[in-house]
Design brief:
By secondary structure, this protein is of the alpha/beta class. The chain has 4 domains: 112 residues, Phosphohistidine domain (Glucose Oxidase, domain 1); 113 residues, Enzyme I, Chain A, domain 2 (Orthogonal Bundle), CATH 1.10.274.10; 144 residues, Phosphoenolpyruvate-binding domains (TIM Barrel), CATH 3.20.20.60; 161 residues, Phosphoenolpyruvate-binding domains (TIM Barrel, Alpha-Beta Barrel). Helix 1 crosses helix 6, helix 3 crosses helix 6 and helix 22 runs antiparallel to helix 23. Bound molecules: phosphoenolpyruvate and magnesium ion.
């Protein structure tokens, strides 16, 4: 690399969401806005061009029929009928004739001609502004979908780059990355990423922490300044992206990387020891996973089990729904590798920021308040049953526990258990074995669940507090919105009281209580949770060793004093400062390692 002068260096600020430092060439992912090329053709080139257009339509037709079949299998014919409308749009004679007319008359390429006509139709449909035309407005979104498919096919494939199959290691720069893009991304090829949008508890950020990929959000980059192949250094401890770092900058950061690596080694030394406080309280410390292949890492960081298996990532990595057999193999792989350690498998939590690309789910105006998690499963019974059967079958060979997400009250729990009983009955009839005493738990992540925790506790074996959602639903702060990220406050006094209420209900009913949200892996907040009486913490794999290091330097008495004091505070900032102070006292190096 040639020497760079300090004046070439440019600094962009961002919010660090997954710690680490990396440097390398960048890949700027395009936004969804596409540029349609326009070029002239000789008279002799027109027949070939028209042939290319017809081929594009044939390919698109095949793709739509394929998606329609998949949806038909997964959801039934009513949902699949939507694609009849797509086929009608594709075959619309006016759209096709006018495209051909423009191509012949103006002697231009077909994507330009097709797009010009299609955009006119779309504009007309979207400009209808009375509710009587609601139906036609919806057709505008169908039309956009079809037009995009045709243009993808004419222009040689989608502009989306698949992060699973990157050829060279790159740092990804994008306006936004959604979980369906990051699920299954190759951690060796994606060195790091920085996005304009996103937040610390978005599933993309959680995935980055899980894979130990340094990441920033809220980058406010200007596409004009950063170009693919530019060389950058990404500092996801301090929230900086440095374009054209000088040799001196690279050298300075090299020192920091070495210091972090040395400390990681120190932390790793305690990984085979139990998570026990200095005054003898044993804490169950588990790991959150997204894939059965995480099993070796769960062992190597010395976790006591899996406190949360986010099964939706099995669904996001595929272009179709995973079958019962595929799911069974995945659950079995994890549970049998870690047996007898307990594995908590959470049933499908799609919706919110996790969309199944193959389900073509209608866009919702408030997806986090919408058709998500258990609400989705209780309506999509076949998808739910397929998963429950797979989990039950796997429970035969491992210590599996089952957990429902987003339970808001007792009736959802009972409905879910009713479906589970049906699956058990089916398996018995088929002569298939499963753990008849499989434990059932619920996530406590909606304030209403806290308020009825006693009734829930009477019908489950454990609670796991999902603080990521509990914060967003308690404080009415969208966990994805970087503009209000400063209001997303896990130490808000209301949060502490809700956690305390949940712990008390669990104690009264003699069931276990854990935390599997990101608070459990946030070193600053661990003593606070323990002091509030939580028995189990479950954090992303790279955080487990640090949490253990901290627990082994902490006295339970100090944690309890902290939480008693915090419960009397009326400011989230004050609570955060006191918690940090305690961690700074017992394990100061740890906080330097976290952002
Ligand atoms: C949570 O909400 O805290 C949680 C663990 O679930 P998820 O982040 O997948 O919504
Ligand atoms: Mg949640």
């Amino acid at each position: 690399m040639s020497q760079r002068s300090p004046s070439d260096e440019l600094n962009f600020k961002g919010l660090p969401v997954s710690p680490g430092i990396c440097h390398g060439r960048i890949l700027v992912l395009k936004t969804n806005e596409r540029t349609i090329p326009k070029y002239s053709l000789p008279e002799s080139g027109i027949p070939k061009e028209i042939n290319r257009f017809q081929q594009g339509l044939v390919t698109t037709r095949k793709q739509i029929l394929e998606v329609q079949n998949q949806v038909n299998r997964a959801l039934g014919s009513e949902e699949a009928n939507i694609f009849d409308a797509h086929l009608l749009i594709l075959d619309d004679p006016a759209l096709i004739d006018e495209t051909l007319k423009i191509t012949r008359r103006e002697k231009v390429n077909v994507e330009h001609a097709y797009n010009a006509i299609a955009q006119k139709y779309i504009e007309t449909l979207t400009s209808l502004d009375t509710t009587a035309f609601e139906y036609l407005k919806e057709r505008a979104s169908d039309m956009k979908d079809v037009v995009n498919r045709v243009l993808d096919n004419l222009m040689g494939g989608s502009e989306q780059i698949d992060l699973k199959t990157l050829k060279e290691p790159r740092i990804i720069i994008a306006e936004d990355l959604v979980p369906s893009q990051t699920a299954g991304m190759d951690g060796k090829k994606v060195l790091g990423f920085a996005t304009d949008k996103g937040s610390r508890t978005s599933h993309t950020a959680i995935m980055a922490r899980s894979l130990a990929i340094p990441a920033l959000v809220g980058l406010k980059y200007r596409g004009a300044t950063l170009k693919s192949e530019d060389y950058v250094l990404l500092d996801a401890y301090n929230g900086q992206l440095i374009l054209n770092p000088t040799d001196q900058t690279l050298f300075d950061y090299g020192q920091i990387v070495r210091r972090h690596a040395d400390f990681k080694e120190v932390v790793h030394q305690a990984s085979d020891k139990p998570a026990i406080t200095l005054d003898g309280t044993r804490i169950m410390l588990s790991a959150n996973v997204e894939n059965p292949s995480d099993k070796d890492d769960v062992k190597s960081v010395g976790a006591d089990g899996v406190g949360l298996f986010r099964t939706e990532f099995l669904f996001l990595q595929k272009n179709s729904l995973p079958s019962e057999e595929e799911q069974y193999l995945a659950y079995h792989e994890l549970a049998s590798a870690l047996n007898p350690a307990p594995i908590i498998i959470r049933t499908l939590d799609v919706g919110g920021d996790k969309f199944l690309p193959h389900l073509d789910k209608a866009k919702e105006s408030n997806p986090f308040l919408g058709w998500r998690a258990i609400r989705f499963c209780l309506q999509e019974i076949e998808i739910f049953k397929t998963q429950l059967r797979a989990i039950l079958r796997a429970s035969q060979q491992g210590n599996i526990k089952l957990m429902y997400p987003m339970i808001s009250g007792i009736s959802e729990l009972r409905q879910a258990n009713h479906v589970l009983d049906e699956c058990k009955e089916e398996l018995r009839r088929e002569g298939r074995e499963f753990d008849e005493d499989i434990e059932i738990g619920v996530m406590i992540e909606i304030p209403s669940a806290v308020m009825v925790a006693d009734s829930l506790a009477r019908e489950v074996s454990f609670f796991s507090i999902g603080t990521n959602d509990l914060v967003q639903y308690t404080l009415a702060v969208d966990r994805m919105n970087e503009k209000i990220a400063h209001l997303y406050e896990p130490t808000h006094p209301a949060m502490l009281r809700l956690i305390k209420l949940t712990v008390d209900a669990a104690r009264r009913n003699n069931i276990r209580i854990g935390v599997c949200g990101e608070m459990a892996g946030d070193f600053k907040l661990v003593p606070l949770l323990l002091g509030l009486g939580v028995d189990e913490l479950s954090a992303t794999i790279p955080q487990v060793e640090g949490v253990k290091y901290l627990i082994r330097r902490l006295k339970m008495e100090e944690a309890v004093n902290l939480s008693e004091f915090a419960l009397k505070c009326d400011s989230g900032q004050e609570i955060l400062e006191c918690s940090k102070e305690l961690v700074m006292r017992v394990a100061p190096d740890l906080l330097k390692d976290q952002m």
